[in-house]
Specification:
The protein is α/β, with parallel strands linked by helices. It folds into 2 domains: 170 residues, Rossmann fold, CATH 3.40.50; 229 residues, Rossmann fold (3-Layer(aba) Sandwich). It has 17 helices and 17 strands. A hairpin with a 6-residue loop joins strand 16 and strand 17. The chain binds pyridoxal-5'-phosphate (PLP). Pyridoxal-5'-phosphate binds next to helix 6, helix 12 and helix 16.
């Protein structure tokens, strides 16, 4: 048995996989917030470069990856697929557990896969500055890194609660040359509006998106980059699932269960979409997205058109949502504190091609600590959701006496999230509140 399955760099996939080409149903178009009509490429051109708008709407199955992007991917790709054999032993399970280790990237997560691509396409069309939001800081540091590689300025609105919880992520963005502000900030209309309602607002991804979009729309030299949710972001992340499939083939394995944590859908979609294609073609695979119980978008949200941001500036997207004004509690998995979901992932859930589970914060840290003690890697709190579900599936396989192959995405390491682990080890993690879903004012109670 090989513990780690490495591909050679010559085998890095040379195209992104576009699931839209293989879906047996059509996707619902995003709508213009003013007219209620489907948006046009021209509507999006103020904030995105045309190449990304085309990818967003494309139905071409394979989209070639430009050489300039592949050169930067070569700093860390392919990432290893690792057999969690020590965890299997600890659990005494007949299941074979594999994880795709995206924490091997320079910034420690899967986020550079799309940051590099977005920076490249922007640079090519003359963008000088990119502005974005970040939750836990993984996305912000990825975009800061990518902008630095392509000689562009980068500005990041970082959700206030993470800004305070994760000071070293902020330092990392600064090392890569980015400017970082806590969101809500007094520098935008959106930020001022939220601060007027609550001067101590912990912020949310939805609010930070409003601030970043407002700044991008107001400046000619600046465009906006989003770290998740949109079709083109998930498209770039499919490099993960393509590599994983190749590595499983090298190990002589076929996945029975595929698991990813879900914030806006990018690491989950990136791993899962190539497997969803197989499922559409008849393969039996259980594909599961895992989210926090305190921000249960897929398991308790409604499928309807909603804004991607809190203020209501973005196009309306048909997705599972808790309502764009939902304020999630300040859990440590900051990257999963999002009210909405990728429209592609939402559509797959609606049609039963995937399923979703929600887990409490204390359970995911228990799973993450068990995983760290067995395999050595300390997972990002977001990724810990996938770890805990993989453990539960392996225990179920033991009870059923089935030697299932379980594959999950270890989307990032948690070495800059140690306050969360400190709080867990000190027994200080609060039980998160139940979510009440009077959805016009959905809030944690
Ligand atoms: C390590 C890690 N995993 C997962 C996520 C969730 O985002 P997504 O659902 O887009 O993968 C984040 C978001 O910041 C993250 O940092």
């Amino acid at each position: 048995m090989s513990k780690m399955i490495f591909m050679t760099q010559a085998d890095i996939p040379r195209q992104y996989y576009n699931l839209a080409a293989d879906l047996p149903f059509s996707l619902d178009p995003p709508l213009h917030p003013g007219t209620g009509q489907p948006i046009t490429p021209a509507d999006l051109a103020a904030i995105f470069p045309m190449a990304l708008i085309e990818q967003e709407m494309s139905s071409q199955r394979e989209i070639p990856i430009p050489e300039e992007i592949l050169e930067i991917y070569a700093l860390y790709r392919p990432t290893p697929l690792i057999r969690a054999s020590e965890l299997e032993k600890l659990l005494g399970t007949p299941a074979r557990i594999y994880f795709k280790y995206e924490g091997a990237s320079p910034v420690g997560s899967h986020k550079p896969n799309t940051a590099i691509a977005q920076a490249y396409y922007n640079k090519k069309e003359g963008t000088k500055r990119l502005v974005t939001e970040t939750g836990a800081g993984q996305w912000g540091s990825s975009l800061a890194f990518a902008c630095q590689k392509f000689g562009m300025e980068c500005k990041v609105f970082m959700v206030r609660v993470s800004f305070d919880q994760k000071p070293y992520r902020k330092a990392m963005m600064m090392v890569y040359g980015a400017t970082v502000l806590a969101s809500p900030s007094p520098t935008t209309n959106a930020g001022r509006q939220i601060l007027a309602q609550d001067p101590h607002s912990p912020g949310s991804l939805g609010i930070a998106i409003s601030e970043a979009v407002e700044e991008a729309a107001g400046r000619d030299d600046t465009k906006y980059a989003l770290g998740s949710v949109l079709n083109h972001v998930l498209l770039h992340q499919t490099i993960i699932g393509q590599e994983t499939k190749r590595q499983l083939e090298m190990a002589g394995e076929k996945a029975d269960v595929v698991i990813g944590c879900h914030g806006g859908g990018s690491n989950f979609g990136g791993l899962a979409f190539p497997f969803v294609r197989d499922k559409i073609n008849g393969a039996k695979i259980d594909i599961v997205a895992v989210e926090p119980l305190s921000c249960p978008t897929l398991t308790r949200g409604k499928l309807e058109y909603d804004f991607g941001d809190t203020i209501g500036m973005t196009p309306l997207i048909r997705m599972y949502t808790l309502g764009h004004q939902f304020m999630p509690p300040g859990i440590h998995a900051g990257g999963l504190r999002y009210h909405g979901a990728s429209p592609l992932v939402s559509k797959l859930l609606e049609h039963g091609l995937i399923r979703a589970e929600a887990l409490p914060q204390n359970d995911i840290f228990k799973g993450a600590v068990m995983f760290a003690q067995a395999e050595g890697i300390i997972p990002a709190p977001e990724s810990a959701h996938a770890v805990e579900l993989a453990i539960r599936e392996a225990v179920k396989a033991k009870e059923e006496g089935k030697a299932k192959v379980i594959v999950f995405n270890l989307s990032g390491h948690g070495l800059l999230d140690m306050q969360a682990y400190q709080d867990f080890c000190d027994g200080k993690l609060e039980q998160e509140p139940e979510i009440t879903l009077d959805r016009s004012v959905a809030k944690a109670s």
